[in-house]
Recover the amino acids of this structure.
């Protein structure tokens, strides 16, 4: 979940202890109640994560002096700040520049704490205080405070706290079982039939990747929302992605679910033949959720989705397709069948019933 670099280099400890000595007894006195205003630098590629970490740090009495993505520009800025600790936020579903990481380890002279939020179980409230106190203890150790006595984590008045959880009375959970619904020509009607057949409390969340014009995303969301008891919506930056959510992929933007479950919207990284790209959406979800993910390819023209489905299978997820006879145009499901072996084939209602059975097995219901 977090660690200090290189078994914490002795030079780092030396500098931290010197800094503590220069401040006299102030830090020793304050450490009995919590941490003093230690200067913290935060490096994270996720804007939402940087915002959440800054809030946690500042409400713990720490001083965030720099908070940006990890780049060489960040390292140059870091040299000019009074930062005493670098909090480096990494997670498994993002690619990292290994040369840059080596440069960080070789050149950064202050203690580095690695914070990997993918190690947290976001649906267990007890994990948040443990994470918070553990991180505060690491910061204390790395700056030479030996008698740190942890205090309870701060209470946040709003709903933007790191690892925020849906209210228990709603019965909803952070999205864990995530399915992509890919469709093109004839897709909206198939999607309505599928969503209409799902129960309101299904333990899954969905991302719709439907080929359509940029001005029709909200319209499609409204139409689908009228057909189901689930929560269908266009994506909103920062929205907490939960079971029973159905998010319609926008045109020209990429949906990213960050490690604490919030939606982030990014530029599409590459030119694609289709918009939105079903292949890209499936690949992102497969990388993020692995064996708990799935993709269903509905009616549509072309071959978008076939490569994403191959990737989904490689990640251990499920791939299902609509039957040719129930499609307006069956090119997309047909192309998936030619390239891979879907685990289930059915009309929209059959796909919905099979999904309920599958999720009951996954959830042990």
């Amino acid at each position: 979940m977090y660690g200090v670099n290189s078994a914490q280099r002795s030079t780092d400890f030396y500098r931290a202890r010197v800094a503590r000595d220069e401040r006299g007894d102030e830090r020793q006195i304050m450490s009995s109640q919590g941490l003093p205003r230690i200067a913290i630098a935060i490096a994270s590629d996720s804007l939402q994560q940087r915002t959440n970490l800054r809030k946690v740090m500042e409400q713990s009495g720490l001083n965030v002096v720099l908070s940006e993505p990890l780049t060489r520009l960040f390292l140059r800025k870091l040299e000019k700040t009074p930062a005493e600790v670098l909090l480096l936020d990494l997670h498994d579903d993002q690619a990292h520049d290994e040369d840059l990481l080596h440069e960080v380890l070789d050149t950064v002279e202050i203690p580095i704490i690695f914070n990997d939020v993918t190690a947290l179980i976001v649906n267990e409230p007890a994990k948040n205080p443990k994470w918070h106190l553990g991180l505060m203890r690491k910061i204390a150790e790395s700056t030479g405070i030996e008698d740190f006595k942890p205090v309870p984590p701060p209470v946040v008045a709003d709903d933007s706290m790191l690892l925020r959880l849906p209210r228990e009375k709603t019965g909803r959970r952070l999205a864990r079982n995530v399915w992509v619904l890919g469709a093109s020509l004839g897709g909206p009607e198939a999607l309505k039939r599928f969503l209409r057949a799902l129960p309101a409390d299904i333990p899954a969340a969905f991302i719709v990747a439907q080929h359509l014009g940029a001005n029709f995303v909200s319209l499609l969301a409204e139409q689908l929302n009228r057909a189901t008891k689930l929560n269908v919506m266009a994506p909103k930056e920062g929205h907490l992605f939960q079971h029973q959510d159905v998010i319609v992929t926008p045109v020209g933007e990429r949906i990213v679910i960050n490690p604490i479950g919030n939606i982030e919207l990014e530029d599409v990284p590459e030119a694609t033949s289709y918009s939105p790209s079903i292949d890209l959406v499936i690949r992102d979800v497969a990388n993020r959720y692995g064996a708990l993910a799935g993709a269903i390819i509905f009616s549509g023209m072309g071959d978008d989705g076939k490569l994403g489905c191959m990737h989904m299978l490689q990640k251990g997820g499920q791939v299902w397709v609509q039957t040719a006879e129930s499609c307006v145009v069956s090119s997309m499901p047909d192309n998936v069948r030619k390239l891979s072996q879907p685990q289930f084939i059915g009309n929209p209602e059959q796909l919905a019933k099979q999904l309920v059975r599958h999720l009951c097995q996954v959830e042990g219901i």
